[in-house]
Design brief:
heterodimer, A: alpha+beta, Arc Repressor Mutant, subunit A, elongated, B: alpha/beta, about 15% strand, ATP binding (chain B)
Chain lengths: ~475, ~475
């Protein structure tokens, strides 16, 4: 970005609340069902049907409000957003307009460059999703699938306070982590459970008036959000520098070309004729409702991350990664509780060996084939010197393959480290006898030969020699000064 | 075998003594409907279903078991055509029963069919029906009132002992007045709207039209109560209206609203209402002069709020999923505009246009928001008045039934006739229209309005009046 310009970005994130049934009907919300098999009379908008609010969705919105220290409205209002579209059965969407359930809050966001920014969240409101038009199922005709119609969404609206694509993506990731952490959204972006509209404008650096914004609709990956915003900032700057005026409009992101293009301009925008939904009395949230949710709130990712750095002395990068999702952090803590004082070792293994195995198997950590207690046992053997780090990796692989617990595998495979000085000394003597020239050369100053002897001993002990012990004993026997 | 019916209590006694069967009563009602078919009170009569229901009713107990009735065609009835008197729903068969239908079914009442009405309950004359106007049995050249005109005519003609109705701005009370029957509009939220096709959701109210307050009480007891399927349904317990029906009126304070006797109120109508009030005075009630200073704003507020809600409620009739669909649409917009243009009547279109307008950007504050403020003022007027009186009285309608076609080209004149009824809906209060005499052979209705959830008081006062007068018992000539 040219230094003369400052970008201003606000995001509207739609998080699908993970409830069993829809926001205003009893129909199920499971993804991927046969078209129109999860649409009740309410969802199809048959005459005489009425919406009834789903308390579980309201509870999840309250949890989000608590997590961002937001103002939870004791009374909020469902409104109708009126427009005609085939996938909108009632001819209006039930949303919240003037009085949302969650008012102003804030979220601390760690940007990749190490800065932490406070992103103001203006509001979060409940609304129902629309259905889906299916264009490829019938020749020259459009099908309508109403399975999504009525699914509960929490629309999370940030203030226009971000100034780069990197900040916007970091914010989006933080929200993504948070909603999954709270158990209110599965965060599945392929299935559309978490998607984003980006409002972008630019202004001369150092000024405070907002420029004309464009809105990029329905971007459904972190990378696309980054690319779309980057493109849009550049496009707007180029346009202004060429003497053009930015038009307030809705744009679509084309992921194949990494560009945005006009969808509709403000002149042709709909007048949604919002008004309070007369079928739904004002939504009342009591302090008891709020306290009930507060009582079951988990430690939040920001707090936990800070604790890992301050109390466990973990590097910030480790803390970030462990707190990227709650299941990983919980796994780490379960390992740590069985292995007190070994935070760094536990973190290394959770983020290293375990993460690699999960990644390779495409398995979520909840379904890890080595549970936290089993991993803790393995790490305990490593700490006790029963096995070396190298052997530990071998044992972990065997555990992952279902061969049993760490102790059983160590026994069965005879992997117990040789820590018996006598036994180890015998092997060393044997090696030194076999390679007298090398021994003398090493003793005479060619220390680069030392690893050769280590390798020979390890080979004869099948890796079971205790490395520290081997090192010390070998130096002594060759006649080198102890390191 | 066609003949009008006695009271529900008398019919129940006959059924209990096995002097008649539920089937006999259903057959009689069906015969009545055939005999009076020229009234056009019904959109659909379903003898097979009625007789099957009569068989089932043999097992039910309670005052309504085996009693025939008719549903306004705005209540969804499972497996049966429910049209709302609109071409758009001409072939709509609901897959569920409305709450009101379920409750009456459970009480053993036997529906013989669906009554005519103004399309989507929009109208005060029943001339806005896709299935033709309904005639008033007292004078077949006159309207029965609306929108529950078919229900009122069917009860007045003695076809059925009672019929369900809905009241958004007077749609139970005004036809009850025009047809000389008793019509109860309960408190908003007292009767579930589930399965009742929406016109203006914040005003719509299910209720009953019958020959007497005592009959209305039985039906009210059956249909009132909480329903979790309607988020606006009241959770509070329902009063035992039968228990207080005969309570004495001594000490009762009835506010006579001077605004209800304003310009436009026919002198004969006013005289009848005053005579009925005098009867109540004789029964021990005290008449008190009260004022509802914002009453004259009610029509304007109502005809902003109701169309606003209607414009949104009726958006679902788009030809996409069910209902009338235009042939060979050229585009999506063409599908929408022709499907709707071809199937909505003129009054429905007028209200959709008005409603769309008052909700539009730039007009919302001046119309919709202001109308909501007026609505609060009107509710405040009632609250103030009820600080001093137990009921508020006036004529239900300013005139008796007008001639068919007399106002059908003058929407404003038609709307103005709702002057005394719409404020009650805006305030969400219960009200009853009870017969109060005749002017030129046409019935007059006395409207009584009560505080929220005081239906028992309305039924009690109406019942006591009916014990000392016979206006409610008279039959139009040819329907005895």
């Amino acid at each position: 970005m040219s230094r003369a310009w400052e970008a201003v970005i606000g995001l509207e994130i739609h998080a699908q609340l993970s409830t069993a049934s829809k926001l205003f009907s009893g129909a199920p919300t499971a993804y991927g069902a046969e078209p129109n098999t999860q649409a009740s009379a309410v969802d199809v908008a048959l005459p005489g049907t009425l919406p009834v609010p789903n308390r579980a969705a309201i509870a999840k919105a309250i949890r989000f409000g608590l997590a961002i220290d937001g103002q939870i409205a004791s009374t909020s209002v469902f409104a109708r957003k009126n427009y005609f579209y085939p996938d909108l059965p009632k001819g209006y969407q039930i949303s919240q307009y003037e009085l949302p359930i969650v008012g102003r809050g804030t979220l601390a966001v760690r940007v990749d460059d190490g800065r932490t920014i406070a992103v103001a969240i203006e509001r979060a409101h409940l609304e129902e999703d629309a259905g889906k038009s299916v264009h490829d199922a019938f020749h020259a005709e459009t099908g309508i699938d109403l399975n999504r119609a009525g699914v509960p969404l929490l629309e999370i609206v940030s203030a226009p306070v971000m100034h780069s694509a990197a900040e916007a993506v970091a914010y989006m990731r933080t929200v993504h982590t948070l909603v999954r952490w709270l158990g209110i959204c599965d965060g599945n972006m392929q299935e559309g459970s978490f998607r984003c509209d980006c409002n972008v404008s630019v202004r001369p650096a150092g000024t405070t008036t907002l420029g004309t914004r464009t809105e990029i609709k329905n971007v459904n990956s972190f990378r696309f959000v980054e690319k779309a915003i980057e493109y849009e900032i550049e496009r707007q700057i180029r346009a202004i520098e060429n003497g053009e005026t930015i038009v307030q409009e809705t744009r679509l992101y084309d992921p194949t070309r990494h560009q945005t293009r006009t969808m509709r301009t403000k002149e042709s925008a709909d007048d949604y004729r919002y008004f309070p939904d007369p079928d739904l009395p004002p939504l009342v949230v009591t302090s008891a409702d709020i306290e009930r949710e507060r009582a079951s709130m988990p430690e939040l990712p920001g707090a936990r991350r800070a604790r890992y750095v301050a109390a466990l002395a973990l590097p910030e990068a480790d803390a970030d990664q462990l707190c990227a999702d709650k299941a990983t952090a919980d796994y780490f803590e379960a390992v740590l509780s069985a292995l007190p004082g070994e935070a760094k070792l536990a973190a290394n293994w959770v983020l290293g060996e375990l993460a690699a195995a999960l990644n390779e198997a495409q398995t979520p950590i909840e379904a890890a084939r080595v549970d936290a207690a089993a991993l803790a046992t393995l790490l305990a053997r490593l700490r006790e010197g029963v096995i070396s780090g190298k052997i530990a990796k071998e044992v972990f692989a065997a555990m992952w393959n279902g061969e049993g617990g760490a102790d059983a595998i160590i026994e069965a495979r005879g992997l117990r480290q040789i820590s018996d000085t006598g036994a180890l000394a015998a092997v060393i003597d044997e090696v030194l006898r076999e390679f007298p020239q090398q021994r003398d050369a090493c003793r005479g100053g060619q220390e680069k030969l030392f690893p050769f002897f280590v390798g020979q001993v390890m080979k004869r002990t099948r890796g079971q020699a205790n490395p520290q012990q081997l090192n010390a004993l070998l130096r002594e026997k060759i006649g080198l000064e102890t390191a | 075998m066609s003949a009008p019916f006695a009271s529900i209590d008398a019919l129940a006694a006959d059924l209990a003594a096995r002097r008649v069967s539920a089937r006999d009563l259903a057959e009689r009602a069906l015969a009545n409907a055939r005999r009076h078919a020229h009234l056009n009170a019904f959109i659909g009569v379903d003898p097979e279903r009625a007789l099957a229901a009569a068989e089932r009713a043999g097992n039910a107990r309670g005052p309504l078991a085996g009693i025939p009735f008719a549903h306004k065609d705005i209540f969804c009835t499972k497996g049966q055509r429910t049209t709302c008197a609109s071409h758009v729903l001409e072939n709509f068969i609901a897959p569920y029963d409305a709450h009101v239908a379920e409750r009456l079914d459970a009480a053993g009442a036997v529906s013989i069919g669906k009554t005519n009405m103004d399309e989507f309950a929009m109208g005060s004359s029943n001339e806005n029906s896709a299935f033709g106007a309904v005639k008033n049995p007292w004078d077949e050249a006159r309207v029965p009132g609306g929108s529950s005109g078919g229900s009122a005519a069917a009860v007045a003609a003695g076809i059925v002992p009672f019929a369900t109705g809905t009241d958004t701005g007077g749609s139970i009370r005004q036809p009850a007045a025009f047809c000389g029957v008793t019509g109860l509009k309960p408190t908003y939220g007292r009767v579930s709207r589930y399965g009742m096709i929406a016109y203006a959701s914040s005003l719509d109210c299910g209720g009953v039209l019958a020959r007497s307050a005592a009959d209305c009480a039985h039906v009210f007891a059956a249909i009132a109560g909480h329903d979790p399927r309607d988020a606006t349904s009241a959770a509070r317990a329902v009063d035992d209206v039968a228990a207080s029906l005969d309570a004495p009126l001594a000490g009762l304070r009835i506010g006579v609203a001077r605004e209800y006797f304003g310009a436009g109120v026919d002198d004969g109508v006013a005289a009848c209402v005053r005579e009925a009030l005098a009867e109540l005075e004789k029964l021990g009630a005290t008449l008190v002069d009260v004022s509802l200073p914002n009453a004259h704003h009610a029509i304007a507020a109502y005809y902003v709020i109701a169309p606003a809600e209607a414009s949104s409620n009726l958006a679902r009739y788009d030809g996409v999923r069910y209902g009338h669909r235009a042939a060979q649409p050229k585009s999506l917009d063409d599908l929408y505009s022709r499907s709707r243009a071809e199937s909505f009547g003129a009054e429905v279109k007028r209200r959709i246009l008005v409603g769309t307008y008052v909700l539009s950007a730039g007009y919302y504050d001046a119309y919709y928001l202001r109308a909501q403020k007026v609505r609060r003022l009107i509710a405040g007027d009632f609250a103030q008045a009820f600080g001093d009186v137990d009921l508020i009285a006036g004529p239900t309608a300013p005139t008796t039934a007008f001639r068919l076609g007399e106002k059908s080209n003058d929407a404003i004149a038609m709307y103005a006739a709702d002057v005394n009824t719409v404020a009650v809906n805006l305030a969400g209060l219960p009200a009853i229209s009870t017969p109060a005499g005749f002017v030129g052979g046409l019935p007059v209705g006395l409207q009584l309005v009560a505080p929220a959830f005081a239906e028992a008081r309305l039924l009690n006062v109406s019942h006591r009046l009916q014990q000392v007068t016979d206006w409610h018992a008279r039959r139009p000539e040819g329907y005895a």
